[in-house]
Amino acid sequence: MTGFLFRLPLALVSMLSDIRTVLGVFLSDARRHKLVTFTTLVGIAIGVAVVVAIRLSSEAALRNFKATHTSLTGTASHQITGVEPLPAARLAELRRSPAVEAIQPVIDASLIVLGVVDASGTEARLGEGDGDEPPMTLLDVAPDDRPHVVQLIGLDPFFSTPFLDFGPPAQRSTTDADPRVGQLFDRLLTEPGFALVPRADLVDLGIPDGGVLRCSGPIGEVLVTCAPIPSTWSGLGSEEGDDDSASGKRKGGTTPLAIVDIATAQELLGLGDRVLRFDLMLAREGDGKITASTEAAVPVLAGELLERAGRRGERADSMTYAFRSNLLALGFLAVLVGAFLVFNMAQFAVTRRRPLLGKLRCLGCRASTVRTATLLEAGVFGLVGGLLGLLAGRLLASAMVDDVALTVSTLYGFIETPTPTLDPLTAIGAVLVAIASAVGATWVPASSAARTPPVLVATGAMRETATHPLVPLGFLALAALALLPTFGGIVLPASAVLLLLLGVATSLPLLLGALVKHPPKNVLLNLAAGRIQRSLARTGGAAGALVMPIAMTLGIAIMIGSFQREVARWVGSALSADIYVKPLWAELAPHSTALSDDIVAALEELEGVEAVDLLRYLEHRAGSTSFRVVGSRMDEALHADSLRLLEGTREEAFAGLEAGNVLISEPLANRASLGPGDTLLLETRSGPRDVLISGVFQDFSYDRGYALMEASHYIGTFGDTGVVGAALNVEPDVDVDALQASLQDRFPDAVFTATRAIRENVMVAFDNTFAITYVLQGISTALAWVGVLTGLLCLHLERKHELGVLRAIGSTTKRIFGLLITEALIIVGVAGLVAVPTGAALAWILVDIVNVRSFGWSFPMVFDFAEIASVLALSLGAAGLAGLVPWLLVRKENIAQLLGGGS
Amino acid sequence: MILRTLVLAAALVANVGAQDVTLDTDGFQRAVSGSPINLPADHASHPATRTEWWYLTGPLRTESGKLFGFQATWFRRGYVRDVDGARSPLAVRDIMLFHGGLSDVENETLYFSDELSRAYGPWAGASTERLDVRLFGNTLVALDDEAQSAKLTMRAEDVVLDLDLDLGASTILYHGEEPGLSIKGPERGQASWYYSMPRIGVAGTISWPDGRAERVTGRAWMDQEWGSSQLSGDQAGWDWFSVAFDDGTDLMLYGMRLKAGGLDATSSGSVGVPGKPARHLTREEFTFRPTGAWTSDVTGATYPSGWILEVPSADLVVTVTPTFPDQEALSPGSTRVTYWEGLCRYEGIRAGQPIVGEGYVELVGYDGEFVERL
Fold first, then answer.
1. Residue B223's pLDDT is what?
2. Scanning A78, A238, A485, A502, which has the fewest C-beta atoms within 10 Å of its C-beta?
3. What distance in Å separates the CA atoms of residue A577 and residue A258, rounded to the nearest whole number?
4. According to the model, what pLDDT value does residue A797 have?
5. pLDDT attached to residue A269
6. B118 closest CB neighbour out of A158, A171, A264
7. CATH number of the domain that residue B258 is part of
């Protein structure tokens, strides 16, 4: 017992000392092989950088989106919005309710900034305008030419005090210590077009104090005079530009704010005496809760919606659910590709060092010491590479955040490009993934090197072996399991993508080994095959590193291509009318608004118009699911061609509509697992009612899905919720463009768009939707090249002495080049050939499973042979480089140098 | 913060010095002689002036004899003299404020609420045609063209008062040496148009939050005053008394306190005795002296509490006693002025005859903050 107590610390000290010695040897080895060390670190760093960049940029964009859609609710518990702007007079009725403790009218909308006029009257145009006519509404701005906007917040300061902190009372009165504050307040109340802007936003926009913004809004061009918000009005974003917790705004890349008096907002936006919402504070019980009966006591009218203030944020969350899910899946893939790269580099490093490990064992090092030191070193590589990757990822995030913002803007509503911020969770997570991948990748080769008899390892007589066949098979089996339809959600399909890629990548050494086992009787091929065979773990690893990103690129390309084709087809047929009309407000304010009665009446009596379809809709919420119910004149003659039924027959569908049944769009059908013959529960004016579903139609316009109802039944069920859009079918001999232009002149409160323009816009929007995906594709391609290049380059440099031997026995440098190219072609060729079916399988998972589950829409998968060819060309390019670069490096060295070996 | 843009505070800052003495610097009309008050037309709002108020106070009794006092005040504060007609209906021209108090004498409790809003038809405003002032649910509206009767609805905390007013029953006091023109300072234009209706008959209900409604009857004193620059910077506040005695005598006195101590020379009053025309009382014609003091637990302000008023020229001596001490009003939601406005018992002797009455006393400028602002 006593002996053991003595021996234990001694053994520990001795082991630690051994490990230190071995680490010292490793360090000097790493120093000698700087290129290998460098490429290993770069490989790890790239892997980490991709993961970090995707996470940071998407988080920033989504955070910005949510902030934009929940801004300045302050301490409001509830909000009332309307189908159309609400009369300000409603405030008097609402505040009479005992349930309402405080109420404020709010107008929030966006104005496009055209330019800044400074005090001297000189004007600078913002952005990169080319001198064309300035855009007049967001509609006129091509989605890829994103305008600068300011978020106009109209408040009534007399009612805002309970909601927003305007600072200590002593700071504001005509007898203020600082009279300028009082003057600003008076100007806010009385000066037309006067706005208070957070100091930081003034700086961002380049507006001097007192500068005037020339803006475009619903009524045309308007001028906004800007002054900084006094520092004491903390609730509105202070003069110092501090973060503003009360308003939910944060600095950095958010849309600039312009706080105006409610009357000013009405004037700038042409709202008359209407407002866009009321913020309320409802009475709380003793426990601080607001009861359902209190909510029910608020006298809400038809066409008004009372909801908890947080609901807008929740809605922003639910709106972006599909996008976030997709990003999550892409993030998973990025982690996988990144981790695999790290894995590959680490494994490569250990395999390369086997002879050294053998020598250490021969000198008396224990197997456990060798393994521990190897793993420790891998951990350090993971840590250093991870930190480098973190830095690179943060930079990459800044570069790609614009594309992410474009995607979010296109899908859900305008946001300014945000500034990504690195949060500790992401940072720690990314570094841990790097360390874990590096250590995990090292584990098997380190253990195997430690276990193998020292003599075999040291003399290099041991051949590298391929992975055990059960490993790839296991991955593939798990992938198949994850795709079983019993499991919903998209986490499992995303995992299946991951497992599939892992399975294929780990099977490559096996495939490569089988291929080169019986080479044809050609010296060059024989030589190349032998070299590949001897370093199977490394050559296979390089092929694996290539196959993963290439397959991913191909899979995503097939998915997008198929999707694009189907959307183009759908846009071509679904829009059967010639001109579409919507209220001006639908574009600028995040509220559903209606066309005025005057416009509706006029539309119905237009000359040159054959048919008018008036659209009404409401957001239907039932529990956690929400969808849109649309009332439209479902005339069979008008819609027979435009409505593509996926389930149910046309006759049944139109007969059903006439009888008061609904048709549902594919996303709704998929999400709620509904089909013809099922019923949809609707909250109607007269209580809940089950409505029969007569068919399922194809739609790509709204990923939450909608139910279509005949207009008269819609009104009977929900009342007239207001006409939110109209579709005009023009008589055959009428010039559509001329009619559209004349209507637009006649009704400036509505937006008239010719169908052709919509079609074009949809396709531009489609491209914008995939902006982030394209970026990812680019990164994948870069990864593929980096993976294969670093892998093969290190291998070649490691085995320079072999080339020296070949030169010594008479090979020309030309012949050596042939050998290197042949070797690279075999490796890359196998990878490319495997990548094509893998990419196809990936595309199938993305199209038929991930897309259906996240967005709810399906489309046929179409193979684009040009894509496949480009993938193969990409592989060939990589092969060429992988052969060429080592040759360039070795060709100038003489035989003695080559025989010296090392890098 | 807006709350401080206030009628009272702002009105205290003299705007004398503008070139046209009939207009203040923002173009609002000052009160100058030569345009006598014309009722009922002048019950309506006078938007050409910057400041205006309709001030009703008075005692109310339930059928069981319980005594209450009420105060209902609508202030109008002109912000912009002329607003471009093309502007939004919500563009700020006037701001309306309301103070409503109900003194429950039996329980020694003051219910008090205050509000403010920009003038905008459906929210708040004052008619330029007739007696019709409102701020959301607090309304004072004439029921006929001659303004013989009116309806008052107000809320003080959760208590709602609905009162029918018999304006036709009241006498009218036109204050000032030139009837209706109440001089508030030494400069020309430092004045207001000011009349009172001391004997408005009142009947109505007090509705309590628990659903009870009590019928009440009583009498109201209404002041309407408008002008653009009344007070001087050296004034510290005022003490104001109003009472309609049971023998038909009406009395209004105010003492404008100076920061330096003592009363301003423009302090004045009006007295009306049965059978004689009402007459103006100059600073020299009356005295009042406190007989006690009360300190607020809430604000720490110390107010005089109880007075002896003497008006030798009217052969009148009166003791004034608050019905209960704590009738201090805080107006965080509007003017942010802290003041004491309470129902008091007036007992005295006029021409050798004992007289009694219930009336109001208003004490402004006793909290430090207000004095500093002055």
1. 96
2. A485
3. 39
4. 67
5. 87
6. A158
7. 2.40.370.10
